[in-house]
What does this fold into?
Amino acid sequence: MTDIPSQSQRSVQSLAAELAAYPVLVVEMDCRVSWANAEAEAWLGVSLHTLQKSRFADLSPMTADVWHLIQTVFDESRDLSVVGAQLAASRDAGHTMPQIRDIHIRLMPGARTAVLSAGPQQNTVDASHIAALGFGRMLAHELKNPLASLRGAAQLIEREKDIGVTQELAGHIIEDVDRMTRLAEHWSSVGDIKLGAVSKTSLNQIAMMASRSFHRADPGGPQIEFRFDPSLPEAPVDIDLMHQAVVNLLQNARDAICIENGSIILVTRYDSGPESRVDEKLSPLVISVMDNGRGVEDAIASGVFTPFVTTKPAGEGLGLAFSARVASLHAGCIDHDRLDNMTRFNIRLPVFADEVRS
It folds into this structure.
């Protein structure tokens, strides 16, 4: 149980917030600001008196953007951190360009008040250097799926009386244990993942492997529609890493949809368009995961592949960052877009093995 601060402790906390070098706001569920420090007044270009008597979302395009994030906290009863949130310019004439801020919102006991801090954007680590932000957390995240798959297979074996079926399930367990071992070996150099053996492999095969792992980990999850290009050339990949990267995209899609009417489509295709060019090199072999969820929020769209950026309840913001790192290691890239009212995440890979990093 959290201790209730004494009056003197509250006074010290209030003074610390007032003297903070970045904006701090206390916002109520009815879209009113009950308190703001001097930095917040300067940032927003309005006084505390104006903030207290006005609807926060109506003050400016920027406060409307910020309120959208705060409303997410109230609606979903959870804290939220957004690295590199893109906000409209404030009312201060000195801000003529959209602002980029690191926004942190904490929901207070009672769920009717939130505290927001808006720090300047930090020099965030690129997705290609994920592990500097936490080797242990990232490794644990990537082992969760095969562990869930193992548990699901073991539960089925416990109930199954057909020896043929149990042997098949035991085979799946062995596959997942071997994959976990190889994933751990990829991380054996603390601070980053490394490519293992790279071989020419069918992306259709990797997509099917990933979908099976996804369903073993979540048997009651949504069905997946497959749209594979049978003529797609093989890609030079580390099978285990690419497998996990696709699983992460499927998990991301599952979290974005409403299960009752949700739709996930797994696609392989050849795309030689401008989005498939990385440093003037073509990465035309594409695995795409599409879903009919609500899409990527504008505030985090530019940083969605950065570690710890998430709007999911209890989310860690590591799955997409891992997938981005895997794409980068293969001299490819990852992006997201909208197509036919669906959100699409694309891993783009080169055709030639000599382009892949060793």
In short: DSSP finds nine helices and 14 strands in the chain. The two ends are 50 Å apart (CA to CA). Residues 1-10, 122-137, 308-317 have pLDDT under 50 and may be disordered. Residues 127-138+196-355 form a domain with the Heat Shock Protein 90 fold (CATH 3.30.565.10).
